[in-house]
Amino acid sequence: SINVENLSALSAKHPKPSNTFTYGTAGFRMKADLLDSVIFRTGILAALRSKKLDGKVIGCMITASHNPAADNGVKLVDPMGEMLEGSWEAHATALSNAQSDEQLVDYIHSMVNSLKIDLTKPANVILGRDTRPSGEALVNAFVDGLKVLDAKSTDYGILTTPQLHYITRCLNTAGTPEAYGEPSAEGYYKKLASAFKTLVDGKTKLSPLILDCANGVGAPKFQEFLPFLGDSISVKIVNDDIDNAAKLNLNSGADFVKTGQKAPVGLKMTSQDRCASFDGDADRIVYYYQDEDGTFKLLDGDKIAGLAAMFIIDLVKAAGIDSIKVGVVQTAYANGASTQYLRNTLNVPVSCVPTGVKHLHHEALKYDVGVYFEANGHGTVVFSPSALKTIYSAEGSSPAQAVAIRNLRALSEVINQTVGDAFSDLLLVETILTQRQWTPKVWDQAYTDLPNRLVKVVVQDRSIFKTVDAERKLVEPAGLQEAIDAIVLKFRDGRSFVRPSGTEDVVRVYAEAATRSETDELAHRIGGLVY
Ligand code: 16G
Ligand code: ZN
Question: Backbone phi, then psi, for 235, in 5-degree steps?
Fold first, then answer.
């Protein structure tokens, strides 16, 4: 059993405020000054998780992604670099809400008993954090939590979220046939850069990419990455002021650009430019450009998924191994035109799952090669073990096939298969555009987005909204879905759904239709039903 005196001494340093906490889609996330006790207790949980998994390394990332600078958060990463197993989210929530040390100890003991955790097993946890000023103190709170169970920890300091996922996987696969790479930021840079250089070898270099780093961790880390990439790419970084914490994500970054459908501050663009934005922890990316008439054009996660699927399907064919089946996973937020393009033009199977990376990732694993992206720019591609085996054992019967096979291998290495990764996705997009010598405008021509609108509605109690069918239909409150359906029917290409947010105390209404004005009208009328 655990040393209660030790726990009490450590816990006294991290008193719980009266708030109630929930480990949600994005882990715990809130104002940083509320997080101390939550993070301390998440440290205890991480140690338990590692012990349960026989000492495998668990990752901890301290970040609040695209949220304002005053927020922070914590997310745990399972051994292969995936999100914490779903059933453990409830344990995280319960620990964070324990009202006393006694309750805390009771809950830990109940976990030990019900999950058969052997406390004598070792525990290993690694940490990373973004550039938020509150991060360092929160790392210390987490480490205090680890001390409750004598867990070993390694602090990797400032990292992007996907780097922490990558390192976690590297550590747990070292020395096995699934070895993923050297467990360090440098190992990550080397792996990605070498694969990228193979992919663009001999092709004409594109014009410089203008990259908005949201004044977050992506800025120093991409800067660190550039020497590894050498002259294979040219990138001009903007919004890299991490010393001025208040500027983090402020009027910049992938979320700002996607939500506002406009360029970030600090980025001047002409119709010749190709631009991209990271979010505050560099696990999302969106691209954009300006049309000749000055119109802002967004290339979001759906557009990236379409581009990647198109490219991979062609490559698999060119390699002569089209036994490998490619599939795409989206959420209800995917633009209807993108789903049409994937199904009808590319002829790929498309699945729709609830919002949140863990759902997308899990579904993508069902395909030989699964491409998944949320419209907001979070996504990646996962290769099944059998697809990798095929790719690595294929030899090809012509020089063209051999090149395609080489490129498929490099593609599986340039892509961070643990989680959506803005650096890796950037290299994926740049690879495809370089290979095809495409401008963003040519890429954009694959299909035309239906106009769409996303609105937030503040309601008394969002928990009364219950969805099914990958969040596309409401089953509660009774009668509301029928009312929505009746309105949607009146709109050309109309589609709308309502779901409670997993990260904010609001209900979200999504609408799309044939024209801008019809879309606005539809969103307005559905919003009126919810309110
Ligand atoms: C979180 C999710 C993101 C999702 C968003 C939806 C992860 C790592 N992140 O940020 O994928 O799009 O929540 O938020 O899973 P919402 O539930 O408030 O709409
Ligand atoms: Zn993020």
Answer: -130, 135
Structure-block tokens of residue 42: 């998440």
pLDDT, position 531: 85
Do the beta carbons of residue 318 and residue 350 sit within 8 Å?
Answer: no
Counting ligands in written order, the one closest to the CA of 334 is: 1
**Contacts with 100 (C-beta within 8 Å, 6 or more apart), sequence order:** none
- Residue 75: which H helix or E strand, with range? strand 71-77
| Structural domains present in the chain | 4-158 (3.40.120.10), 187-299 (3.40.120.10), 301-444 (3.40.120.10), 452-530 (3.30.310.50)
What residues have CB less than 8 Å from 432, skipping those under 6 apart?
Answer: 307, 308, 311, 438, 443
Cis peptide upstream of residue 477 (ω within 30 degrees of 0): yes
For 389-408, the pLDDT digits (tens) are: 999 999 999 999 999 999 99
- How far is ligand 1, taken at its centre, from the CA of residue 25, in Å? 6
pTM of the model: 0.97
Pocket test of ligand 1: the residue of 67, 352, 503, 505 to mutate, having most ligand atoms within 8 Å of its CB, is: 503
Q: Determine which one of 65, 96, 232, 351 is catalytic.
A: 65
DSSP letter assigned to residue 515: S
* 8 has catalytic annotation: no
Phi/psi at 187 (5° precision): -60, -40
Instruction: Please list every protein residue whose CB sits less than 6 Å from any atom of ligand 1.
Output: 25-26, 355-357, 374, 376, 378, 501-504, 508
pLDDT for residue 505: 86
3-state secondary structure of 115: coil
CA 374 from chain centre, in angstroms, equals 8
C-beta separation of 159 from 221 below 8 A: yes
The string of pLDDT tens digits covering residues 279-301 is 999 999 999 999 999 999 999 99
